Amino acid sequence: xxVGILLVGGFGTRLMPxxxxxxxxxxxxxxxxxTEHQLAMAKRAGITTIVLATSYLSEVFTPYFGDGSRxxxxxxxxxxxxxxGTGGAIRNAAKLLPTDQSVVVFNGDVLxxxxxxxxxxxxxxxxxxVTLHLTAVDDARPxxxxxxxxxxxxTAFLEKMENPITNTINAGCYxxxxxxxxxxxxxxxxxxxxxxxxxxxxxxxxxxxFIDDSYWLDIGTPKALLKGSIxxxxxxxxxxxxxxxxxxxxxxxxxxxxGAHVDPGAVIDKGSCISHGAxxxxxxxxxxSIIEAGASxxxxxxxxxxxxxxxxxxxxxxxxxxxxxxxxxxxxxPQ
Length: 335
Ligand code: GDD
Ligand code: MG
Hints:
- The chain is of the alpha/beta class.
- It is built from seven helices and 28 strands.
- The protein has helices at residues 34-44, 61-65, 85-94, 116-125, 178-181, 192-202, 222-234; strands at 2-7, 28-29, 32-33, 49-54, 74-79, 102-107, 110-112, 130-136, 144-145, 158-159, 168-176, 207-211, 216-218, 247-250, 254-257, 261-262, 267-269, 272-274, 279-280, 285-287, 290-291, 296-297, 302-304, 307-308, 313-314, 319-321, 323-325, 330-332.
């Protein structure tokens, strides 16, 4: 048995203006908040107790997730009045968890279909201090670069280096021995990537890599957010959060959630999703886009490769391409 911590306190700077009112993990991909997809992934691996480590816009999570019973989980909240960094956040959240079970920590902006049960199993068999999910990417520069030896032991942790020495990176899902978390000082700003992991490796801690190259994506940039949603809709990424009680129609090229109103004369394609309460009028064409809850798209609009935020209203015949649309602004997405 393992318990979980979801790190959901970052500012989501690269996704402004969408993250002005919504923390990054609460943005919609494939009809549901990113966090909800992650909870389904955690639950599949047997995790039913989880702490959301929140800071920025912490108040947005509680009304949506409550005590977790809707998902058959126990969800708790640890709120940092000022962001404590990833390490400080883990230490703060772990206060709410039992100390006799492995603790799985998730970055809150990652979609992953890796075999988490196996990661936990290997961690426990190895009696490791920490076991990091690692994956290969083309360009390792924006990530934590993590070389391993032939036994799978991590030999260095190099956060965001200019000339990466390997393309194997930290995929943002860690299994911790609880006693290792207790060594992190309380109420201090600490980074696991820049302090805890490099120090543990330098001090010969048992840090293992779990290499799994299944579907993986950090949705922290505008293009990645749209790609993640399309991948969930089309089935490239595991979408077990999309249970039949939530979905109206899913074709493999489009997803319409229950409670959305889509006129029969509208076309929804290229992996687009339409959330609960959104209204799509006759003649509209939604392509490769995310339409959040309660947004309204007028007649004969064309919305291409765009994110329309909750409650935004788009007038008849508007043509929008590669943009974020909120109820007050339209911002181009850098290509
Ligand atoms: N509670 C809390 N408090 N959460 C935080 C804080 C904080 O002070 N700072 C960041 N987080 C959360 C973010 O919300 C996000 O879910 C996660 O920690 C990682 O932060 P990002 O800002 O998304 O980091 P990154 O994408 O640049 O890099 C991280 O992820 C990569 C994989 O996607 C690092 O862990 C890299 O090593 C890794 O390769
Ligand atoms: Mg990230």
